[in-house]
């Protein structure tokens, strides 16, 4: 288990084991995240080791070869029957999710791999250890600390979008709100905005992220959904929450502390800013 807060390098450590293995699968919670890992594995962006890697999600398939050694997929599409060297199961805390948790459980119990690397929050350690004990397996827990500081702003913006600055990311939980906020930010500040949300086509999302990360770009403010909270590397200096509530499919609920920390942790990503420079929320 690789556990720790966001921006602690825990997933990178697991991905190093993945690309060093002869065969392996990355299983993540979002198709955008699976697409990013697929690209990084194929292009050798992890430890400089390029591997042939296919992509499989509920909406997209990309095959670089019938005999590709690796696969990046969403958790629900994980081929548990295939014999593998390494499986990386990301965001393991979703094991407790009432809607999707069974998919994490299926991979955790059913993956036919020599090693299963699970990544996520420390809160999942006890549950995974109990499951492993019942199965007669051994769990090695590796804990990581955040690599850059993250601080809380002294006060809210109180809805004043004129205070938006380059490098800010505004997080909203409704696609209509994302488009409305982006329009208002441009009108009130003159800053052009990049967008990112779960249903966005991967090619468009990658283009928006690349332009936002470019220090010379005019798209220097990001308006996004909580999809940015799971592993997407963006050069965000400050995370601003539009609201602290979201629709869960049944009702409007407050963000849990875990969800808020996951999203806020996107600010000040290690390696994307100056030395010692952190993030703010």
UniProtKB/TrEMBL annotation:
<dbReference type="GO" id="GO:0005524">
    <property type="term" value="F:ATP binding"/>
</dbReference>
<dbReference type="GO" id="GO:0000965">
    <property type="term" value="P:mitochondrial RNA 3'-end processing"/>
</dbReference>
<dbReference type="Pfam" id="PF22527">
    <property type="entry name" value="DEXQc_Suv3"/>
</dbReference>
<dbReference type="InterPro" id="IPR050699">
    <property type="entry name" value="RNA-DNA_Helicase"/>
</dbReference>
<protein>
    <submittedName>
        <fullName>p-loop containing nucleoside triphosphate hydrolase protein</fullName>
    </submittedName>
</protein>
<dbReference type="Pfam" id="PF00271">
    <property type="entry name" value="Helicase_C"/>
</dbReference>
<dbReference type="InterPro" id="IPR001650">
    <property type="entry name" value="Helicase_C-like"/>
</dbReference>
<feature type="domain" description="Helicase C-terminal">
    <location>
        <begin position="156"/>
        <end position="281"/>
    </location>
</feature>
<keyword id="KW-0067">ATP-binding</keyword>
<dbReference type="GO" id="GO:0016787">
    <property type="term" value="F:hydrolase activity"/>
</dbReference>
<dbReference type="InterPro" id="IPR027417">
    <property type="entry name" value="P-loop_NTPase"/>
</dbReference>
<dbReference type="InterPro" id="IPR055206">
    <property type="entry name" value="DEXQc_SUV3"/>
</dbReference>
<keyword id="KW-0547">Nucleotide-binding</keyword>
<dbReference type="GO" id="GO:0045025">
    <property type="term" value="C:mitochondrial degradosome"/>
</dbReference>
<dbReference type="GO" id="GO:0004386">
    <property type="term" value="F:helicase activity"/>
</dbReference>
<keyword id="KW-0347">Helicase</keyword>
<keyword id="KW-0378">Hydrolase</keyword>
């Amino acid at each position: 288990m690789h556990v720790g807060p966001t921006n602690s390098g825990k997933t990178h450590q697991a991905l190093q084991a993945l690309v060093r293995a002869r065969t392996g699968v990355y299983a993540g919670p979002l198709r955008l995240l699976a697409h990013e890992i697929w690209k990084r594995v194929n292009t050798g962006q992890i430890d400089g080791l390029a591997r042939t890697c296919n992509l499989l999600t509920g909406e997209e398939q990309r095959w670089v070869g019938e005999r590709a050694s690796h696969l990046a997929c969403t958790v629900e599409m994980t081929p548990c029957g295939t014999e593998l060297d390494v499986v990386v199961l990301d965001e393991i805390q979703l094991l407790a999710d009432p809607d999707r948790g069974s998919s994490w459980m299926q991979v955790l119990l059913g993956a036919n791999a020599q090693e299963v690397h699970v990544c996520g929050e420390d809160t999942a350690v006890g549950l995974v250890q109990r499951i492993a004990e019942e199965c007669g397996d051994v769990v090695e827990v590796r804990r990581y600390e955040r690599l850059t500081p993250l601080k809380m702003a002294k006060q809210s913006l109180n809805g004043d979008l004129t205070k938006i600055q380059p490098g800010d990311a505004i997080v909203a939980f409704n696609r209509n709100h994302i488009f409305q906020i982006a329009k208002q930010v441009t009108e009130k500040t003159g800053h052009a905005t990049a967008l990112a949300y779960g249903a966005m086509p991967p090619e468009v999302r990658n283009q928006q992220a690349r332009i936002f990360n470019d220090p010379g770009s005019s798209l220097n403010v990001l308006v996004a959904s909580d999809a940015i909270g799971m592993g997407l590397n963006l050069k965000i200096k400050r995370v601003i929450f539009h609201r602290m509530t979201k629709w869960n499919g049944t009702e409007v609920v407050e963000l849990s502390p875990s969800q808020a920390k996951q999203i806020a942790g996107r600010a000040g990503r290690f390696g994307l800013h100056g030395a010692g420079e952190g993030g703010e929320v």
